[in-house]
Amino acid sequence: MSFEGKVVAITGAASGIALSLAHLLGSRGAKLSLCDISKHSLDNLVQTLVTQGVEAFGTVVDVSSREAVDDWIASTINVYGRLDGAANVAGIELGFTNIENLPDETWDKMIAVNLTCVMYCVRAQIRVMGHGASIVNAASLAGIMGRSGIGAYACAKHGVVGLTKTVAKEVGVKGIRVNAVAPGPIETPMLNRLLQSAPSSTSSTTTNTYSNLPLQRKGEAEEVAKTIAFLLSDDTSFTTGAIVTVDGGAAA
């Protein structure tokens, strides 16, 4: 799948799945507009990509800010003149808390960064995209089933699923496709932080999902990145509103 000449925007680009995706799409010829909250990590990524001959630039963005997101997409158009694809991958985890004990501020931040930010990004992206463009949002296994102890995260990711399906129906007439991936346990810094924070009383079905998977392992970030690239590509030109699981069979 060549992305030669295509412009793709990626959120959360400096780590995990989005980092793998940036390297993958860059190797396939994409021009990249990358954003992340971490300036140091983002600068290192852009420098590495440019050294490899990839056309890329980075912008420090707090994706929970509408103004920051709008400015980033506007700068992408200013630099490249177009936007052909977008992968909205940025997200956070804030440890384990049952709904009964969930602080308001934890709920508010989880919804802001894991759901509202996706709406901000999608809204800005579809306003500048043309026929044939494609968006992939990062949902989660927690977006298609309940997950004990991470209720705020699960609710936000369920929202991403609903947003993806809704926007797909709204912009299909423009020839824009909108899909989502629903990763299971993937070997990333985010998952490792979450598991390390789990109290001993937390349900094993949440913390040890991978041990019961048909494939008997956690996934790798690159495996999810390849699925996102597939959905962004013209090879899925008749696929929209789909939620594609990348979970080792957890939801089977």
TrEMBL record:
GO MF term set: oxidoreductase activity
Keywords, comma-separated and alphabetical = NADP, Oxidoreductase
A Pfam family annotated for this UniProt entry: adh_short_C2
Gene3D superfamilies attached to this UniProt entry? NAD(P)-binding Rossmann-like Domain (3.40.50.720)
Q: Which SUPFAM superfamilies does the UniProt record give?
A: NAD(P)-binding Rossmann-fold domains
Signal peptide span per the entry?
none
InterPro entries of this UniProt entry? NAD(P)-bd_dom_sf, Sc_DH/Rdtase_CS, SDR_fam
Q: Which family does it belong to?
A: Belongs to the short-chain dehydrogenases/reductases (SDR) family.
Q: What is this protein called?
A: Uncharacterized protein
State the organism of origin.
Answer: Penicillium malachiteum
